[in-house]
Amino acid sequence: MTAGGPPPTDPLRSPASCADLFRVFNRLALQGFGGVLPIAHRELVERERWLSPLQFVELLTVGQVLPGPNIVNMAIILGDRHFGWRGALAASAGLLALPLLIVLALAVVYQRFADQPQVAGALRGMGAVAAGLVIATAVKLARTLKRNPLGLPASCALGAATLVMVGFLRWPMVGVVLGLGGLGMALAGWRLGAPPAPGPSEPGR
């Protein structure tokens, strides 16, 4: 069993109501210090079982290529999938309403105490934790590459190219997404349309 939720072999469930969507996304947002994506995977995939790991990756992919924050796009898509515009509104409200008030309050506090060395040190520590959470989520999501139509080698090559272009060469994100994203979609489409490889011949033929 996974911590905080049922084992991933359990059948998928659906949110019971718009209030259920609001509650889960509000809980998710209030845990997301330094980045909500790792918490979203734990809540939506492992705890609530609203998405399979592969569905989570697919939803994240759509959220990344659309304008706006990834997790907000995911909340809107997931809410609309179950309850239409009401579900989209409930999920996004749960994700944004209370955290917005907290951020505004913290902004006032930070403006007053930003020069304190303890505050600067605390922020650096939170940055390290956030980086660890992102890496842990990447390791979890990497398991879905086995069923990706691109295959594991091509997926790793595209990921490495993205890291080099964005992380080291500092190329614009839009160009990298359009270039490597277009290449990945074209290659995936070609492999999905290719005829299946012939299986082993039967004995006696």
How is the secondary structure organized here?
Blueprint: H1 18-31, H2 37-47, H3 53-65, H4 70-113, H5 117-142, H6 152-168, H7 173-193
Helix pairs in contact: 1-2, 1-4, 3-4, 6-7
Describe the main β-sheet briefly: none
- Structural class estimated from helices and strands: mainly alpha
In whole angstroms, the N-to-C terminal distance is 47 Å
Mean pLDDT, rounded to whole units?
A: 82
Model description:
The protein has 2 domains: 1-113 and 124-147, no CATH class; 148-194. The chain is built from 7 helices and no strands. The protein has helices at residues 18-31, 37-47, 53-65, 70-113, 117-142, 152-168, 173-193. Helix 3 (53-65) packs across helix 4. The longest helix is centred in the middle third of the chain and has 44 residues, at 70-113. It is globular and about 60 Å long. The relative contact order is 0.10.
Structure summary:
The chain has 205 residues and is mostly helical. It is built from seven helices and no strands.
